[in-house]
Design a protein that fits this description.
This protein has three helices and 13 strands, in the order H-E-E-E-E-E-E-H-E-E-E-E-E-E-H-E. With 182 residues, it is α+β, with helices and mostly antiparallel strands. A hairpin with a 2-residue loop joins strand 8 and strand 9 (106-110). The mean pLDDT is 92.
């Protein structure tokens, strides 16, 4: 039995969890998320009001059911957190001439190409550009926020010689020594 899967998920005030068979819908102040889970896990509500919590159990003891146990619990926990607080990932842009500017709802990046890179947000994603070298990706779906941030980073990954490129906030890039003259 999964150690993570056994833990109940507390439901904070202002968040409504609706379970319809294998489909779980979480509605909070930031929006609504829904996901259909595998039949190997059983999802139930326990308690009412401030004591409400979601419990995930397995239907049998097969290897497949055990593998979905912790995953399902974590996905529901991420849905509850996203609907109540949201997720954000900050990206830093390093390099001479590399910058970001907000263009409508999207972001325009100057990354040393002959053309600007324009990134339009997908459903449920917002961009914030607090400085010309920082982009914040915001949303309620943890997976989408992470994927959009990874797609932006993919345009110019940090390189080890000069440290130029797009990196996550706080990411350490190990620098290499350049070619020795001689």
């Amino acid at each position: 039995m999964s150690r993570i899967g056994k833990m109940p998920i507390p439901v904070p005030a202002g968040v409504e969890v609706k379970i319809d068979g294998q489909t779980v819908t979480v509605k909070g102040k930031l929006g609504e998320l829904s996901h259909t889970f595998q039949p190997q896990v059983a999802i139930a509500m326990r308690g009412e009001g401030a004591d409400a919590e979601v419990v995930v159990t397995t239907t049998d003891d097969s290897r497949e059911a055990r593998s979905f146990h912790g995953l399902s619990r974590t996905l529901i926990s991420n849905m509850v957190t996203g609907a109540s607080e949201g997720y954000n990932i900050a990206l830093e842009i390093h390099g001479v001439g590399y910058r970001a500017t907000a263009k409508g709802k999207g972001v325009e990046l100057a990354l040393g190409f002959s053309h600007p890179v324009i990134i339009e947000p997908i459903d449920g994603i917002e961009f914030e550009v607090p400085a010309n070298n920082k982009v914040i990706v915001k949303g309620i779906d943890k997976q989408r926020v992470g994927q959009v941030a990874a797609d932006i980073r993919k345009w110019r990954k940090p390189e080890p010689y000069k440290g130029k490129g797009i990196r996550y906030e706080g990411e350490y890039v190990r620098r290499k020594v350049g070619k020795a003259a001689g």
